[in-house]
Amino acid sequence: MNDSTAEMANTKSPEVKPNEAQEAPAKQLMLGLLFGILFGFLLQKGGVAKYHVLIGALLLVDFTVMKVMLTAIIVGMVGVFALNSLGLVKLHIKPTRYAANVLGGLIFGVGFALLSYCPGTGAAALGQGNYDALAGVAGLLLGSYLYAEASGFLGRTVEKWGNRGKLTLPELLGIPLRAFLIVCVPVLVIVLVILDRMTVR
Amino acid sequence: MKWHSLVTAAAAVLFLPGLTFADSAGTDPRMYPGSAWSPYLVGALIGVLSMLTFYFSDKPLGASTAYARIAGMIGNLFSRRHTESLKFYQTNKPKVNWEVMLLVGVVGGAFLAAWMGGELTGEWLPPMWAARFGTDSFGLRMVAALVGGVMMAFGSRLAGGCTSGHGISGTMQLSVGSWIAVICFFIGGIATAMSMFRL
Lengths: 201, 199
Known about the structure:
The complex is a heterodimer of chains A (201) and B (199).
Chain A (H helix, E strand, L loop, with lengths): L1 H44 L5 H8 L5 H22 L10 E2 H18 L3 H10 L4 H24 L6 E3 L3 H5 L3 H22 L3
Antiparallel strand pairs in A: 1-2
Helix pairs in contact in A: 1-5, 3-8, 5-6
Chain B lengths: L1 H19 L18 H19 L6 H22 L1 H5 L6 H19 L10 H7 L4 H22 L5 H8 L3 H22 L2
Helix pairs in contact in B: 3-5, 8-9
C-alpha cells in the first residue's frame, strides 16, 4: 500500500509543477502587496505623505524628507551590499544615461513641486485622506501614457546621449567597492548628523 | 552707536521676508504637524524593507512604473493595437505585477497608519496650499496637481525612476544615474517651489 501511494505521489508530481509555476507569481503578487502596505505605513508615519512636509522640503525649511531618505540610503546601502557579498541577493542597478537623467530629473522636479507628492508618497497621501492626490494620480497615469507615446523617439535620441549603462560611483572613480563604502557610509552618516544638528525639523 | 543701526538693518534684511508673510503665517510648513515617528526610525525601517524586497522578491522598492503599467491597461481598453505598438509597452507589458500590487499596498498601508494614529485628513485642499492660494483655489489646485502628475510621470520614465526607484533604491546601490537624477529632482523642485511660495 505504501509503495502504491508513493507511486501515485510520483506520478502526480509532474502535474503539480505547472500549478507551482502559477503559484509563484501569485505568491510574489501577495508579497508585493504586503511590502506595499509596510512601505505605505512607514511613509505615513514618517510624515512624508503630508503636503506641507513635502513642499517644506523643497522650500528648504522642513528636512524630514531628506532625513528619511538619507537614513534609508545608509541602512539599505550597508544591508543590500552585505547581502550581495554573501550571495543572497542580486543587485538591480539602473542604467546611467546622462541626458535622460538630467532632463527627466528636472522635469520630475518641477512636477514634484506642483503636485507636492511624488509617485510613492502620492499613493500614501491618498490613503491618508488627501483627496487632491486623486488629480495627481490621474496626471501620473496620463503622463506615463504620454511618455509611452514618445518612447520610440526618446529611445532613439535623448536616451542614447551619454548612455553609460550600469555605472556605479566606485566604477566611475576607479575605486574598489569596499574601499568606496568604507569612506562613503561614514560621510553620509556625518552629513545626517550635521543635518540633525542644524535643523529644527 | 553705529553698530546698533547696522544690526537693525541686518535684522530687517534677514527677517523682512518673514514679516511680509506675517499676515499669512500659514505658509510656514513648520506651523503644521510633523511626522508621527522619528524620521530616522522610519528611514532605517525603509532601509530594512529594501533588504527584504531584494531578498524575498528580487526587486528594489519603486513606485512610478506601476502607474505606467496601469496607464497601459487603461490604454488597452481604448485601443489595444495602438498601446501594444508603443515601444515602452513592448518591453513593459501592461499587466498587474509586483510593482502594481506594491502601489495598491501603499494606499492601504498609509490609510492604516493614519487611521491608527488619528491622522486621517479627508480634505480636498491642503491647508498650506489654501493659506497661500486662497480657500477658493480648488480649481487651481486640481490643475497644478494634474499638470504636476503628468510632468512627474513623464520625467520619472525619462530619468528611469522616481524618488523611490532612483532616490532610495538607486542611490543606495551607488548608481551614478540615480545620484544625478535625485539631485535634478531637488534642483527642479526647489526652484519651482520657491517660485510658488516665496515670490
